[in-house]
Design goal:
Elements: E1 9-13, H1 17-28, E2 33-37, H2 41-44, E3 53-54, E4 65-68, H3 77-84, E5 89-90, H4 92-99, E6 104-109, H5 114-127, E7 132-136, E8 152-156, H6 159-164, E9 172-175, H7 183-186, H8 189-197, E10 206-210, H9 214-220, E11 228-232, E12 239-242, E13 245-248, E14 255-259, H10 269-284, H11 289-297, E15 307-312, E16 315-319, H12 326-333, E17 339-344, E18 346-347, E19 362-368, H13 372-379, E20 385-389, H14 391-405, E21 409-413, E22 417-418, H15 426-438
Parallel strand pairs: 1-2, 1-4, 2-3, 4-5, 6-8, 6-9, 7-8, 9-10, 10-11, 11-12, 16-21, 17-19, 17-21, 19-20
Antiparallel strand pairs: 12-13, 13-14, 15-16, 18-22
Helix pairs in contact: 5-10, 5-11, 14-15
Amino acid sequence: MWYPIAGGHYFVLGLGRTGLAAIRWLQQQGAESVLAWDDQATTRAQAQSLNVQLTDQIPWTEVRACVQSPGIHPDHPLAREAIAADVPIITDFDLFHRHYATFQTIGITGTNGKSTTAALMHHILQSAGNPTLLGGNIGIPILSLDPEDMKWGVWELSSYQLELSKNLDLDVAVWLNLQPDHLDRHKTLAAYQAAKQKIFNGVKRGIVLGIDDPCLEELSKTLQGVPLIPISVKQSVGIYSKDGWLFDTIFERGKRVLCLDEYLRLRGEHNHQNIAAAYAVSRLLGLSVATIAQGIASFPGLKHRQQWVRQIGDIIFINDSKATNVDAAARALACFDDIYWIIGGLAKQPGIEALAEYFPKIRQAFLIGDAQDNFANVLSGSVPYTKCGTMKVAVEQAYARAKAAKEKAIVLLSPACASFDQYPNFEVRGDDFCTLVQQLGE
């Protein structure tokens, strides 16, 4: 087809972290030349230090493959040109899996929870003495990793990455949940589900599937060919949580195996699903219950996902900047009481009306960003609020109000919004929150 890399000409479309890593990897593998393009001039500037030709005039007859970054829409004009010229469109995952075929891999997807589950799975394997890589949508380009002397790879996979990939040939595939998201790209929930479902293409050892969403429960009835392990936080089937315990009907004949209340950094029903998934994969790979329990207990948690930042007196500050949609924010709100809630940014659908059941837990909301006027209208009459505009004002106001109340409180950044109105990504937003919290006086 278009292998091996050496001596070939390649085109990289999209020059974010994934694209830049792909350029470096292709050059290391001996590609004769690499052409590249991104529609954003500021992004193209990041590639200028590399030995790459930046152009949107591609000699397709000379190009072996187009390596497309996940953030680039499949209908991009240059992608359409590649298809018309019969040039394969591939991803960094396609390159990695073809060139490191003996490497064993776990792929994890879901609308919510996939980053925490991937990091937890990686930590369990590492703490059990298994050299393991972590990469993908979690922010680590897969082609920036060195698989030498490694046994496993744990990949977080977004719908964008899955949509573009051909055949991942994962050893174990995990799909946690399915809620409407990224519909600006996928247009319909059915198309979003179809992109996610590509995680099962070529899976070899087993599938772990969250069955609490109706679409995935129906899908579970159709999957064949490899063992299927259902996980649930609502039904007593497969690996499931109930009354603060994890039960195992697959490997342990229905026994209680883990006391979930012991894992304070993984609080809430959504994290119980993440634990169930990591436990199921670990047992499928042959790890003991005791080994898994030790790994979960030592897991430090993940930045920007209900991250414990600081405690001042009786006030605890939690960074949940990764909550870029309503469903993710609901998971955080469900975990706490007496909340001083920092919310806002670039709003998505559905709106925060969907969070009304949690409003009684909120002492006051502090609104930031583009959505603050809209959110003020929604909260009016239900939740006291302050329009703050910026994160700095919101942190200062939330701390002042919580301190004045003289009782236990949670200052929670869980924005339920994208960050792009004020920040380049949710990580920068969360880091800003953490910095501002650390600057507060006692």
